[in-house]
Write a structure and sequence with these properties.
This protein has 3 domains: 329 residues, Glycoside hydrolase, family 3, N-terminal domain (TIM Barrel, Alpha-Beta Barrel); 207 residues, Rossmann fold (3-Layer(aba) Sandwich); 130 residues, Immunoglobulins (Immunoglobulin-like), CATH 2.60.40. It is built from 22 helices and 25 strands. It has a 6-stranded mixed sheet, with helices on both faces. It has a 5-stranded mixed sheet with strand order 16-24-23-18-19, with no helix packed on it. It has a 3-stranded parallel sheet with strand order 3-5-8. Helix 18 links the parallel strand 13 and strand 14. The relative contact order is 0.11. Helix content is 28%, strand content 18%. Helix 15 packs across helix 19. It is of the alpha/beta class and 723 residues long.
């Protein structure tokens, strides 16, 4: 008798059809168990156990050895969509290599799967937020472009199978305070939601077809995000047409009744989440779905929809097909952490570096003229300062001390002194300022001092990952912590040239350093090869080209209340005071000249696009990348930003070389969001600025380069555009 192949094994059917058939064969209890992040096997249906929880923020994380790239905020500083795609492609390649090797060994535990809960595309609206270094910065346009590139790199371009599944998180409006995230209600206007907090999620859903979206811990406008009808049903599914699955943040569902107090019982909480479209529970609360079903709070058909979505994802990943049919299953384990990937990570790290100050061209250093160097500071030989959070284990780490040591000859004397603890007044039984004397002695004996200060992810990060005075991972202020500022001032008194290297994931108010230290480098958390990239920059092996994806403010006091989610006086688009270092700023060893800006038309009709171009020439003596930035200003303003980034392109120019850089501005980019959250396009005057930075007065003062400016007029009747 001929055996009939069940539909879920029929490879001629669409994945969703196969998943629907598979789910129809499960018991209610089996369905519910598949909605937990640690989903058990169902042997009778050939379903293997699977743990959905995996991380890959800047490399495959928490699953052994892998290539460690710079932290996400450093990636954002590259302003390079193609580079971000390549990074994500390497990460998913290593993820595949590790997954299949783990499968061969029968290991299907946590962090061993192909569903990566990344990228974090929240807007870094406040520099005190501890998790901001996981993001792509403060600008919705930059975040959208880089988020889309990262998702595409993770998920691959095969016409049938996903290389891996990316997850856009944390949806939505999540950006601190960390210590209150389990009970906090983020109140945001319709305008701020549509203009700032939602665009990157929309882009990842509609352009990149991201497979998963993770809800945030907090409430947004009264609704817990992982059970929000507005966010999950009205906007994500119905308005944007999202077809993937939604996962809760870890143990977020129990917050509904324990801290948000929007439900009274666990069954009520899980019903609220599932009924509004949260398919997968990171945690164990969905075990209560059986009770919720018995109580009539959720029906089996709704549960079916969630499980079908989850099984569809697993099928897209090739988990129910033969390995020889899935193209990514042949990626060899040997490619993980290979020489080529580590070399690429070094090149990425170089592109993340930002030169904030270079008075009298003190950098680059001439290594042939230096006989001694002092490496001073708690981050000079720190591995923690390289890796950020959500990291894997690199097979090799190069600290700044290692990088400098490797970059100079054996005849150059290197004096290393930690100087002080990262944030404590003293360590153990030692007295306060215990390390100052050694650091001063090192500086006195050296031709030049490299000071490595800042933060690391042990004091800025996620609630639960840290334990110190820094408010559950958030920063209480923007100053250098502990004794670092005092150490810097004492070393400066010695009178030797000082190069300040800041390793941090967020903005610091280094006002004194800006006034007194000749050279300042923002190095972020630069990845396993970070020390080599920093040394290479200091000695002029390449020209810095990174640009700030966040504003560096002058004081903590000028910031709005941390709990206020209004964008008023926040980020470069709405801030009222002058920045210390503005968004989009970064110096180079080269010098660029912008000229001959052209617009395709002076007047356009409502609904038309316009072309813009500018000539960029390297008039310096170093070959270098330059990030060309376009900012658009609506003269009528309509309550919008003073100007906003709407284009960026990275070019590489040799001395004397020039190129024409072109942009296209679409009607959507010319529109604005009104107070009701509607996208409006109307007649009016617009200004276009193109330069290597913002068109603000502070950037002009720091760079000496005025932005090229053009203008055009829109004529016609007002239109309402699809958001």
């Amino acid at each position: 008798m001929q055996q009939i192949t069940p539909d879920y094994k029929n490879k001629n059917l669409r994945f969703e059809e196969r998943a629907r058939d598979l789910v129809s064969r499960m018991t209610l209890e089996e369905k519910v168990m598949q909605m937990l992040h640690g989903a058990p096997a169902i042997p009778r249906l050939g379903i293997p156990a699977y743990n959905w929880w995996n991380e890959a923020l800047h490399g495959v994380a928490r699953a052994g050895t892998s290539t460690m790239f710079p932290q996400a905020i450093g990636m954002a500083a590259t302003f390079d969509e193609d580079l971000i795609y390549k990074i994500a492609d390497v990460i998913s390649t290593e993820g595949r290599a590790k997954f299949h090797e783990f499968q061969r060994k029968g290991d299907c535990g946590i962090y061993k799967g192909l569903t990566f809960w990344t990228p974090n595309i929240n807007i870094f609206r406040d520099p005190r937020w501890g998790r901001g270094h996981e993001t792509y910065g403060e600008d919705p346009y930059l975040t959208s472009r880089l988020g889309v590139s990262f998702v595409k790199g993770i998920q691959g371009n095969h016409n049938k199978y996903l290389k891996a599944a990316a997850c856009a998180k944390h949806y939505a409006v999540h950006s601190g305070p960390e210590g209150e995230r389990h009970e906090f209600n983020a109140v945001a206007s319709n305008k701020d939601m549509r203009e700032t907090y939602l665009p990157a999620f929309k882009a990842c859903v509609q352009e990149a077809k991201v497979e998963a979206v993770m809800g945030a811990y907090n409430r947004t406008n009264g609704e817990p995000c992982c059970g929000s009808k507005v966010l999950l049903k009205d906007i994500l599914r119905e308005e944007w047409g999202f077809g993937g699955h939604v996962v809760s943040d870890c143990w977020a569902i129990k917050d509904f009744h324990e801290t948000h107090m929007v439900t009274k019982t666990a069954p009520e909480s899980v019903a609220l989440a599932v009924n509004n479209g949260c398919d997968l529970n990171c945690g164990n609360m969905y075990g209560n779905l059986l009770i919720a079903h018995e109580e009539g709070l959720v029906d089996e058909e709704t549960i079916d929809k969630s499980v079908i979505r989850l099984m569809t994802t697993r099928m897209k990943l090739g988990m129910f097909d033969n390995a020889d049919e899935v193209p990514y299953s042949s990626i060899p384990y040997e490619i993980n952490d290979c020489k080529e990937h580590r070399s690429f990570a070094l090149e990425v790290s170089k592109k993340t570096m930002i030169l904030l100050k270079n008075e009298n061209n003190v950098l680059p250093l001439n290594r042939d003229k230096i006989k001694s160097i002092a490496l001073i500071g708690p981050n000079a030989d720190s591995r923690d300062a390289l890796i950020g959070n959500y990291y894997g284990n690199a097979s090799k780490y190069v600290t700044v001390l290692d990088g400098i040591r490797n970059a100079v000859s054996e005849d150059v004397r290197i004096y290393y002194a930690k100087g002080c603890h990262l944030f404590k007044e003293k360590a153990g039984l030692a007295e306060a300022r215990d390390g100052f004397a050694e650091a001063i002695s090192a500086a006195e004996r050296s031709d030049v001092v490299v000071m490595c200060l800042g933060l690391d992810a042990t004091i800025e990060g996620e609630q639960g990952d840290v334990s110190n005075e820094y408010a559950s991972g958030d920063k209480l202020h923007l100053n250098l912590p502990g004794l670092q500022q005092e150490l810097l001032e004492e070393i400066h008194k010695v009178g030797k040239p000082v190069i300040l290297v800041l390793l941090s994931g967020s903005a610091l108010a280094v006002l004194w350093a800006d006034e007194n230290i000749p050279a300042i480098i923002q190095a972020w958390y630069p990845g396993a090869e970070g020390g080599a990239a920093i040394a290479s920059l200091i000695f002029g092996e390449y020209s810095p080209s990174g640009k700030l994806p966040v504003t560096f403010y002058r004081t903590t006091e000028e910031l709005p209340d941390f709990r206020d989610y209004s964008m008023k006086n926040r980020t470069y688009r709405y801030m009222e005071n002058e920045a210390l270092y503005p968004f989009g700023y970064g110096l180079s060893y080269a010098k660029f000249e912008y000229e001959e800006m052209k617009l395709s038309k002076e007047k356009i009709s409502v609904g038309e696009s316009i072309e813009c171009s500018v000539k960029v020439k390297n008039i310096g003596i170093y070959q270098s990348d330059e990030v060309v930035q376009l900012y658009l200003k609506d003269i009528d303003n309509n309550g919008g930003p003073k100007w906003h980034l709407e284009g960026f392109k990275r070019v590489n120019l040799k001395p004397g070389e020039d190129t024409i850089v072109g942009f296209k501005l679409t009607p959507k980019q010319m529109s604005f969001i009104n107070e009701d959250g509607m996208r409006i396009l109307k007649s009016g005057l617009f200004e276009v600025y193109i330069s290597g930075s913002q068109p603000d007065s502070r950037s002009l003062k720091l760079t000496g380069m005025k932005a090229q400016k053009g203008s055009f007029e829109i004529i016609g009747d007002t239109l309402e555009l699809d958001y």
